[in-house]
Amino acid sequence: MKITVATVKPFAPEAVRKIKETAEDTGYEFALLEKYENQKDLIEAVKNTDALIIRSDKATREVIESGNRLKIIVRAGAGYDNIDLAAATEKGIVVMNTPGQNSNAVAELALGMMVYNARNKFNGKSGTELKGKKLGIHAYGNVGKLVANIAKGFGMEVFAFDAFVPKEVIEADGIKALDSADELYSICQYVSLHIPANEDTKQSIDYEILSKMPDGATLVNTARKEVINEDELLKLMQDRSDFKYLSDIAPDKKEEFEEKFPERVFFTPKKMGAQTVEANLNAAVASVKQIINFFENGDTTFQVNK
Ligand code: 3PG
Questions:
Q1: Is residue 123 predicted with pLDDT exceeding 90?
Q2: What's the CA-to-centroid distance between 79 and ligand 1, angstroms?
Q3: What is the CATH number of the domain that holds 32?
């Protein structure tokens, strides 16, 4: 039985070593494909494996259909919008994620980008503080919850809206739960996005909702670029000289944003929210354990294509 790790953006070496060690100690074969530049390399690797561990790598229908003996794909991370779930289900392939394992790294980056922005990208000019500012958490999952908690430490006033989490659950963490996204955007100077990219959310962060944000607004995106309506955000930033956009996922129209609003945007050069040794280790170990537990005990706890 073979477990293959295929990552364009590699895990920290410690994490790869841990997967290899855990796999081999349990009698599994281990294979590694890192920094590949062509989808064909992924397709080749998938032909010859029983289990696949990926990150944001694109497990398209073509990739999945080439997996003659493939039985399980684990997305070492939270979002699985990069996997064609229908194709996997049709082939009887189990797809899992590893929820929560890399959340702290993403949450720390969200706050880090906020400080960086509030201090004018550390350019020496007088900036502002986060303390006392209102922060809106849009979706209260693993990352949203951690961002909220860290932000409280900064002395921010934290609000959250999540259509799928009962208000009492949010309030139990000392966060003010709101009834709608509209309300969240109307109140908060900072909004941190933690919604997944799916058919309901893609392009949903548009001119209408963003224009509700008060003066000095900053939108922080460590979720997915697909949730943003980029044309409408460009228009809004044209109309509002106070509006800032910070994202861990460079938009498709990155050049246009940077050319028009150099002072008001920040994009990490590569998606790096989950790029810490700790997050890589957590997600890597969870992935390989979930695979072994699936093969040995039929455990499908983290299956997302049920
Ligand atoms: C996730 O969904 O877990 C994060 O976006 C991290 O993605 P990455 O593993 O591609 O860095």
A1: yes
A2: 7
A3: 3.40.50.720
Q: How far apart are CA 201 and CA 231, in angstroms?
A: 16
How do beta strands 51-54 and 157-161 pair?
Answer: unpaired
Report the nearest atom of ligand 1 relative to the CA of 97.
3
The whole-angstrom separation of Cα 20 and Cα 288 is: 9
Q: Please check whether residues 241 and 139 belong to one and the same domain.
A: yes
3-state secondary structure of 192: strand
160: phi then psi, degrees, rounded to nearest 5:
-145, 150
Structure-block tokens of residue 290? 């979930």
Around ligand 1, the residues with Cβ closer than 6 Å are 9, 55-56, 77-79, 102, 271, 273-274
Mutate to test the pocket of ligand 1, among 102, 103, 270 (most ligand atoms within 8 A of CB): 102
250 plus 288 within the same structural domain: no
Structure tokens at 184: 């969240």
Nearest CA to ligand 1 atom 9: 55
Reported as a single tens digit per residue, the pLDDT across 47-100 is 999 999 999 999 999 999 999 999 999 999 999 999 999 999 999 999 999 999
Which tokens sit at 299? 């455990």
Assigned domain for 282 exists: yes
Provide the number of structural domains found in the chain.
2
Structural domain harbouring 143: 103-267
Could you tell me if 7 and 55 are in contact, meaning their C-beta atoms sit under 8 angstroms apart?
A: yes
Rounded-to-integer distance, Cα 161 and Cα 144, Å:
10
